[in-house]
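Troubleshooting log. The previous structure file for this entry was overwritten by mistake, so regenerating from the original sequence record. Sequence copied from the archived sheet and checked twice against the printout by T.R.
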Amino acid sequence: MIVIAGVIIGVLWGALLARRRKGRGFDIAQYAVGFGIAFGLLGMILTVILERMV
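Regenerated output below.
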């Protein structure tokens, strides 16, 4: 669940950031994918840490 939430939050944040910087369609898509991957990876690491603690 944390990974999915991280991906969704990352995509939204990346798209909004690119749009604020006056990016075109491909710029918005690239930021969205990049942030989605980064936040998904952080969510996966957080999930592994939480599972190890329990």
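The mean pLDDT is 97. Archived copy saved in two places this time.
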